[in-house]
Write a sequence for this structure.
């Protein structure tokens, strides 16, 4: 059965490739990735967005396929930190996270296009960010490494000021691979 990644994320593609999956990419339509936390717990918000993405791609797939869709955000004390819109926004996120523990949540949806059946789960990882000086923040912002990354940081960049306390690194990067493997077992063999 075809395996489709409903994402434009190079990090998700890399994780799937490194794990040995054969897949193709179909990006969700513009707007399918949009959402407002609307007072929902972060776990509910990310699962809702993952389902939106999978459903959008499923409507455009004509052959049987399993569609993988994921949404990942950072959360600090219940405040959802998606991708920063600009440098100032990234700076405020990093200042909020500096010296604190926070969560990274991923909503993961596996959707079988032929039947319309799907499964959705969430994964949580806990990180601690060391206290960042103004100079450290400015140097990181100057690097541009924060662009397109939830919470304005990339765990995969090997930042010495981030420590994984609980959960998996793949979840923090954007696709909880252990959860995906378990979910795929519930569908027809690939």
């Amino acid at each position: 059965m075809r395996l489709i990644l409903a994402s434009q994320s190079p990090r998700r593609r890399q994780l799937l490739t490194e794990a040995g999956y054969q897949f193709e990419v179909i990006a969700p339509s513009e707007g399918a990735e949009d959402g407002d936390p609307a007072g929902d717990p972060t776990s509910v918000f990310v699962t809702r967005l993952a389902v939106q993405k999978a459903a959008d791609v499923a409507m455009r797939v004509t052959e049987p396929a399993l569609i993988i869709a994921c949404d990942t955000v950072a959360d600090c004390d219940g405040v959802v930190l998606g991708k920063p819109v600009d440098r100032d926004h990234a700076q405020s996120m990093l200042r909020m996270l500096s010296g604190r523990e926070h969560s990274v949540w991923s909503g993961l949806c596996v959707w079988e296009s032929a039947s319309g059946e799907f499964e959705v789960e969430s994964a949580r990882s806990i990180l601690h960010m060391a206290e960042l000086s103004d100079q450290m923040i400015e140097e990181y912002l100057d690097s541009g490494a924060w662009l397109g990354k939830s919470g304005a940081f990339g765990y995969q960049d090997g930042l010495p000021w981030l420590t994984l306390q609980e959960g998996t690194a793949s979840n923090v990067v954007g696709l909880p691979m252990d959860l995906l493997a378990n979910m795929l077992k519930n569908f027809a063999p690939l």
User: Anything to note?
Assistant: The longest strand covers residues 65-76. Strands lie at 2-5, 24-25, 65-76, 79-81, 101-112, 118-129, 162-166. Helices lie at 10-18, 42-58, 87-97, 134-143, 169-173, 177-184. The mean pLDDT is 92.
